[in-house]
Amino acid sequence: MAASIIDGKQIASAIREEIRAETEALKARGIVPGLAVVLVGDDPASKVYVGNKEKACQAMGFHSEVHRLPAETPQDDLLALIERLNGDPAIHGILVQLPLPKHIDEKAVIDAIRVDKDVDGFHPVSTGNLMIGDDSLLPCTPAGCIELLKRTGIEIAGKHAVVIGRSNIVGKPAAMLLLREHATVTICHSRTANLEEIARQADILVVAIGKPKAIDARYVKPGAVVLDVGVNRLPDGKLAGDVDFESASEVAGWITPVPGGVGPMTITMLLRNTLTAAKRIHGIG
Ligand SMILES: NC(=O)C1=CN([C@@H]2O[C@H](COP(=O)(O)OP(=O)(O)OC[C@H]3O[C@@H](n4cnc5c(N)ncnc54)[C@H](OP(=O)(O)O)[C@@H]3O)[C@@H](O)[C@H]2O)C=CC1
Ligand SMILES: Nc1nc(=O)c2c([nH]1)NC[C@@H]1CN(c3ccc(C(=O)N[C@@H](CCC(=O)O)C(=O)O)cc3)C=[N+]21
Ligand SMILES: [Mg+2]
C-alpha cells in the first residue's frame, strides 16, 4: 500500500474539541446550541445516521431533539412542524433527514426551513450564497472534505480537482467549495464519457456516486488525494465506500477510509453549523 490514510475520525475529534471550548463559552452566556432533527418514516440507514447525530449533540452538551414522524405523515403536518421549529427560540438548527417519503415534495420542505437555521446548507438561499461566496452555513459533507484537506496540509489552490457525482447535497457543493479554494474543478456524472481518463488527471479526486467500490486504481493518478464520500451498506452488513480502497490505495498518495473518513466529518460540521447558527441568531461573532 502506497497511500497515507487521512484519518477522518481523528481530525473530527480535534475539531470537536474546538467546538466544545466555544460551546462552553456560549453556555457561560446562557445560550445552549439547539438542534432539531426531523425523521419521517423508518428507513434503517436514516435511523442510524439520526442516532449518530443525536449522540454527537448530547456529547457536545447541545440541546437536541429528534422528531420521528410516521412514513405516511401528510406534507402539511411536516410543514407545520418546521414552522414551529422556525419560531422555537431553543432551536438554532433544523435538519430534515433525506430522502423523504415519495408523497412529500422535498423542495417544498427544504424551502420552508428558516435560512439562518439551515444547518444542512440545503436551502436555495444557502446554495446561492455558496456560489457567490457569501458566508452562509455550508453543506456539511463538502465542508468536511475541505477541512480534511486543510488539516492534512494538502494544498488545494492550483490543483486539478475532479468530483465524481453532481447531487445537490454532495457533488455540486463540493465542486463549488473546491473552486472557492482555487482548485481547477471538473465535475463528472453518469453521462461522462471517458470517466477513467478524466479521473486519472485529478490531483484531488472526490467520489460521491453511491456505487460500492466502483472507483479503483485505474481511476487514480499516482500520488493523488482520494476522498471517498460513499457510504454503502453491503449485503454482509459491512460498510463500503464508492472507492475500492484496497486497489486505489496502491496508487494514491492520500486516501480516506470508509468508515472513519468523510462520515465523521459530516457530523462534526453539523455540530459546527449549529454552534455558528446559535451565535448568529444571538448576534455573537
Ligand atoms: N459520508 C457522508 O457524510 C455522506 C455520504 N453520502 C454518500 O455519498 C454517496 C453519494 O450520495 P448522493 O450525492 O446523495 O447520491 P445521489 O444518488 O444523489 O447522486 C449520485 C451522483 O453520482 C452520479 N453517478 C452515479 N453512478 C455513477 C457512475 N457509475 N459514474 C459516474 N457518476 C455516477 C450520478 O450521476 P447523474 O446525476 O447523471 O445521475 C449522480 O450525480 C452515497 O454513497 C451516499 O450514501 C451522502 C451524504 C453524506
Ligand atoms: N438532511 C440530510 N443531511 C445529511 O447530512 C444526510 C442526510 N440528510 N441523509 C443521509 C446522508 C448520509 N449522511 C451521513 C452522515 C454520517 C455518516 C457517518 O457517520 N459515517 C460513519 C459511520 C457510520 C456507520 O457506522 O453507519 C463513517 O463513515 O465512519 C454517514 C453518512 C448524512 N446524510
Ligand atoms: Mg440523493
TrEMBL record:
Protein family membership: Belongs to the tetrahydrofolate dehydrogenase/cyclohydrolase family.
Organism: Thermobacillus xylanilyticus
Function comment: Catalyzes the oxidation of 5,10-methylenetetrahydrofolate to 5,10-methenyltetrahydrofolate and then the hydrolysis of 5,10-methenyltetrahydrofolate to 10-formyltetrahydrofolate.
Quaternary structure note: Homodimer.
Keywords (A to Z) from UniProt: Amino-acid biosynthesis, Histidine biosynthesis, Hydrolase, Methionine biosynthesis, Multifunctional enzyme, NADP, One-carbon metabolism, Oxidoreductase, Purine biosynthesis
InterPro entries: Aminoacid_DH-like_N_sf, NAD(P)-bd_dom_sf, THF_DH/CycHdrlase, THF_DH/CycHdrlase_cat_dom, THF_DH/CycHdrlase_CS, THF_DH/CycHdrlase_NAD-bd_dom
EC number: 1.5.1.5, 3.5.4.9
Span of domain Tetrahydrofolate dehydrogenase/cyclohydrolase NAD(P)-binding: 139-280
Lineage: Bacteria, Bacillati, Bacillota, Bacilli, Bacillales
UniProt xrefs under CDD domains: NAD_bind_m-THF_DH_Cyclohyd
Residue ranges occupied by any Tetrahydrofolate dehydrogenase/cyclohydrolase catalytic domain in the UniProt entry: 6-120
Protein's name in the database: Bifunctional protein FolD
Binding site for NADP(+): G165, R166, S167, V231
Pathway: One-carbon metabolism; tetrahydrofolate interconversion
Keyword Oxidoreductase: yes
Catalytic activity field: (6R)-5,10-methylene-5,6,7,8-tetrahydrofolate + NADP(+) = (6R)-5,10-methenyltetrahydrofolate + NADPH; (6R)-5,10-methenyltetrahydrofolate + H2O = (6R)-10-formyltetrahydrofolate + H(+)
